[in-house]
């Protein structure tokens, strides 16, 4: 007979007065459970179990004890509101940890708080304290945003190794009123973290982005005073968003005049095709609505969001196009310098409209023209404009 199969005597154990906590349970605290069936004066009696059977019974006993401890702990945690915290632990340990906050109304300068006892994680973290209900943003879409951003780094003070420092680097809210809202095309911002963090957000949202160095400004950050290991925190208010293929939508208004340019179908990435006739241009400025939108009419105090292309009547050459640049442009309609006819011609037009502007030199580039664009001082110009919206005030 092997040693494991030989019967063994059993020792009498004293029951413990207090059940140990689950985290303190170690097998040496438990004794084998072959409890003697007689009085202590009789001495130990054979249990009739082999060593292997005794071992299995010991393990079963340990399991029962652990289950009992867990059950008691669960009951305590349930009665305390599902918090498995001893009564002696302060309640503040169950509160959320420090976090970056930006409070205030959407579109207004936020109050930004970056706790000193919170350090950069080295990862892209995105939170949305205000969730908008507008258009969902995709790569290639152009958003109208206000933003502020901060340098954020671990403290270099040896006495404060667990703290961080931060400094505001720029804020569009601190610019003149007409320059606070900026167009931002997702996928072209040159900050990978900003592109990734805003993609999938919705217009009308406020987004807080912690951007690590590898997805930040790179070497350009040195011009802002950033060190190579610094993170940046952006707070971005997305006021509006326009898909990359946005165009005029409304009621077509046929133009039947053989002496005026014809406008064809939209060519992908190029906008509508415009053909200049072999005729003299109109002597006076003309505004023709080709598609009448359904939105509110623009005013002289608006900043219009548009797609456009410009051509020279003389040779039909195209000299500019936002469609080919891949993003809409914004123009204040109360501008009094430069292309005054362009700005006046868009006033009073409904959002969603497509408008053709025929501008003589006096309403266009003037007597000096624009040599860089090939425009002479005597050239008439033609603009085709899709009015996509206006910048929120």
TrEMBL record:
Pfam families: FKBP_C. The keyword Protease does not apply. It catalyses: [protein]-peptidylproline (omega=180) = [protein]-peptidylproline (omega=0). Residues 1-13, 156-166 have a biased composition (Basic and acidic residues). Coiled coil: none annotated. Residues 1-55, 155-176, 246-280 are annotated as: Disordered. Its EC number is 5.2.1.8. Keywords: Isomerase, Membrane, Rotamase, Transmembrane, Transmembrane helix. Residues 140-242, 301-391 form the PPIase FKBP-type domain. InterPro entries: FKBP2/11, PPIase_dom_sf, PPIase_FKBP_dom. Residues 38-48 have a biased composition (Low complexity). It comes from the Bacteria. GO terms for molecular function: peptidyl-prolyl cis-trans isomerase activity. The chain crosses the membrane at residues 59-78. This is peptidylprolyl isomerase. It comes from Actinomadura rugatobispora.
